[in-house]
């Protein structure tokens, strides 16, 4: 099977004229091995071969995805019904690949599967979690109104709550949350968002880790970008009066330097810029934090990531997973779901964006920002900021 995979990988779109025959053979082989999945390497290469066939064919003709769904949905459904644990993570990866090729609404066969994906037993198996999260993100991104017509499904919130409570998988919960914020209409999201934030702060209070704080900062930034800094402040302060001040001091200012990843740091930079420059509360109620937050943002631009962790986090917790557990095997040709950049095409250079937004804010508040910057920023940070301002061609008074 490894030879078949390598041949497919080498030939790419040259296999397209023969795809109907190849699909039938791959489908027959999948049905056969699913009855006795005793050769893990053979099985892995079989699924990789299916992924290559899908990618090569749909690259030239995206509408061909329907043909693959007709051919592979029956054996996939049988495998899911029979609970062939060794194959289920692979099935979820291929379903994600197929769903992501669609450009419009979610086809009905996927919608019929959606409720099953929220079944708690599936989330008890560690090997299922990464591909399931990717698949749920696909559902949210392709058909938010189909799966959340009036409210976020309770089962989906239950999945988030389970992931949020796990030190191992909490970042996966934030992937789902970010997809919800980016894709679900505000009127659908708002009735349940306060309860979600309560869960976030409860976890932060009871079991804080560096990984969790980094994920939280990125999520808050996504929320500020989508809905505005004032909405974020009002939501947090509705949980406890002046609570956003603590978030600024203990989370954003103290920990943002630990956020890693180019896209994640860009999201934080734009999110902090929006909080600094588009949020009236930052020049009134929370003015004392304005300059320290600006300094923290400049540090994100100019200093390397702070990858330090407390000594107590050097020991990895092994969560209870009784019984046999299938490991997660990433399919290379299924494509890994990268962290989505909600700013692609919108913000090219976050430094210039900061300078431009400061220029706009300064024009609205003459003679206010200049003194705050001169008296509050250290000399080195002020020099960096001046370079941004000059490059953007704006003035701060």
What does this structure look like?
It contains 19 helices and no strands. The chain has helices at residues 2-11, 19-34, 40-60, 65-82, 88-101, 108-117, 120-123, 129-147, 154-164, 170-183, 186-206, 210-227, 229-239, 243-255, 262-277, 290-302, 350-364, 369-376, 379-392. It starts with a helix and ends in a 5-residue tail after the last helix. The relative contact order is 0.08.
List keywords for this structure.
single chain; 19 helices
Largest sheet: none
Give the N-to-C terminal Cα separation.
68 Å
Number of helices in the DSSP assignment: 19
Q: Percentage of helical residues?
A: 55-70%
The Cα radius of gyration reads 24 Å
Number of strands: 0
Q: Give the SSE order as H and E letters.
A: HHHHHHHHHHHHHHHHHHH
Structural class: mainly alpha
The dominant shape is elongated
> Approximately what portion of the residues adopt beta-strand conformation?
under 5%
Low-pLDDT stretches are 318-325
Mean pLDDT, nearest integer?
91
Layout of helices and strands:
Blueprint: H1 2-11, H2 19-34, H3 40-60, H4 65-82, H5 88-101, H6 108-117, H7 120-123, H8 129-147, H9 154-164, H10 170-183, H11 186-206, H12 210-227, H13 229-239, H14 243-255, H15 262-277, H16 290-302, H17 350-364, H18 369-376, H19 379-392
Helix pairs in contact: 1-3, 2-3, 2-4, 3-5, 4-5, 5-8, 8-10, 9-10, 10-12, 12-13, 12-15, 14-16, 15-16, 15-17, 17-19
